[in-house]
């Protein structure tokens, strides 16, 4: 009787042990699986955080690039405005000199001193500024140099020669002013196109960053 009860108890204990061993093995495998899944998720999160950091840095750099471009463009435009002002002032000075010379054609004197021509001193000053800045074409530099080499006090120019030279200068100055304007418009357009493209890239990066943040 006791032996029978012992056998039953032993059988019961073995079944319990087997069940517990099975449960341990089962849950151990589940833990290993979950641990692997957690590891994979951690790796995925780390990868996404790295991508997020990269896109955030790229966005910041792009914003900085636009700021630098805008600063440089503003500086270049300021330089253009200064050159344009000098050229317009030179055109005005040439116009005043021509008007005065043509009035003298009925003239009192066949020869005139350059120092006596209204606007000539201003023309020399503005031309000198433009030449120093390297903002004049070769024909303009040559024409101005021919006048710069003359002594405005001692040298007596025939008025017809002065008029011809100044008329050529007037045309050249106006053409140069238009050339500078065309070049400035082209540079501004190129700048605007590039900035718009970079701003579009920033919007793409912003959307990507927002999406990554949602998934983290």
From TrEMBL:
Identification of the protein by name: Uncharacterized protein
Organism: Noctiluca scintillans (Sea sparkle)
Taxonomic placement: Eukaryota, Sar, Alveolata, Dinophyceae, Noctilucales
